[in-house]
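Narrative summary of target 7.
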Amino acid sequence: MIPALQRFPLFLANKWRIKASNQMIQSIFYLVTYMRHTSNLERAIEFAAEHLDPPISLDFRKLLWDVETQKFSTIRDSAESYLGYWKDWNKEFVESFHLIESSLFEGSEERRLALLDKALEVILNGTYENMLHYAHNLKTPMTMLNMLGIILPILGLVILPLVVSFLSSESSPIIMIIYISLLYNITLPISVFYLGQTILSKRPSGYGIEDLTKKAGFEKLSKVVIPLAKNISLAINPLYFSLLVFAVTLLIGLSPLIFHTLDPTFEIQLLDGKFKFLDYVCPTTSLNCSADEQVGPYGMISSILSLVLIAGIGCSAGLYYSLRSKNVIKIRQQTRALEDEFSSALFQLGNRLGDGLPAEIAFAKIAQTMQGTISGDFFTIVERNMTKLGMGLEEAIFNSKVGALVNFPSKVIESSMKVLVESSKKGPRIAAQALLSMANYIKEIHRVEERLKDLMEDIISSMKSQVKFLTPAIAGIVVGITSMIATILTKLSAQLAQFASRGEQVGAFGDLLDIFGIGIPTYYFQIVVGLYVVQLAYILTILSNGIENGADKLGERYELGKSLINGTLLYCFIAGAVMILFNLFAGAIINNALRP
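Modeled conformation, tokenized:
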């Protein structure tokens, strides 16, 4: 553990650095946006800090605080000290910040605006190039992760039942299950998670995504809302629903152990004894062994009930993440759709303002022109607040109860509207220029974001296919094979014990049973494999979301909700179907083999 513990502080630092670097493009975007209409670096940093999330918003506030407390005499000195931390990690951010500082000393307005445009261009191009190199260098570590952490262990499960059957003749089947659990539920998941976090730590900065659950007024959406009356509703933490599902499935899944503990002689048989409930057997070919010496449950019904336990673990966790994120993700999807088309809406609004129209009339015309679109809905709300509620432009947009931003909580749109309000005080022409520049910025950022997604598409699609289908399908088939082997060996053991008790010669079958033992109970083996499938789904979903979107907790929770539920249910369905079919085949094989 010493090497892992030594690297743990570096792991935490890299995780914090990734969150900060994901907001670099947005930070330069806010600085440039404000500096275009007001050439004041202190106000621009304050504007950016107001619209960014931690950790970089805290860094920007610290820049201002160091000047306020006279640690540095000017904001440039404070910024220079801060940028020194990023020289080795994000050179494009440092260069863009220096270009923004240089624009303060330009006497020509045209040259000043050109430097600001160049600052955003530098960080966008630098981000794309860094991500391009990252995508190329990602293939080798991802291949190693897939092969050593996922593919080989899953394929190893295919021969593991036979290996364990050989070893179970020397060791107790329960002891062998403990060894397998230590390997598949502790060692392998920790190794895969560590390799995945190492890969994520090398991810360059990207375009950050806001977590809406941290915004005021959206906490209730992360809960399950139950309407009680017209204006009364009850918000319940989704954790309670998840715990209820887990408790019920845990009770059902552990019922074979509970029944055997309460009554060791309890047994239920279905289909003329083909399917047994508990089926505890003696570990040798002897018929005489106490209840404490018996091993099991080997029964088919117990194996099916163990699937209920795994389904409860995966679905309860998935249900928690799904209920916590599904309401908020709908608002984000609407907001992202608005951001995608907002650049063209800003362009039209800027042209209207450039024609000399007041902002109030310009909003009404844009709302009419873009009717039926998400942008049209946004402008319609602003226009309605001004005409019917008598609000001013700023209040119509930013009012905490009925403002347009209540339904579209986007930092990009909020900053655009704040720039509009600030610049409109200097006249419609200045406001028009500011909006046209912002439209170009938003369009450029969206273009780079789409190119980054294209770079990662091959790797992300491969990981998602493993989570959704390959891992659950292979693991389910392996559990079915194990169930068949265990059924054959236990039935042979019972038949040979009866022959031996009557003094008959068991011949080669007895020697074969001495080699193989009685196998391992499918009940325990399935729980180990099922937990491994759930753990892999969790780890791979976090890794794929981190590679694609960086630090995006809301998107991560939404994807976890889908992956855990779908992957676990697919595994349980395949494992259950294969177990039933293979056990029927095993029964037919044993009957033919032992037929006189």
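The chain has a mean pLDDT of 79.
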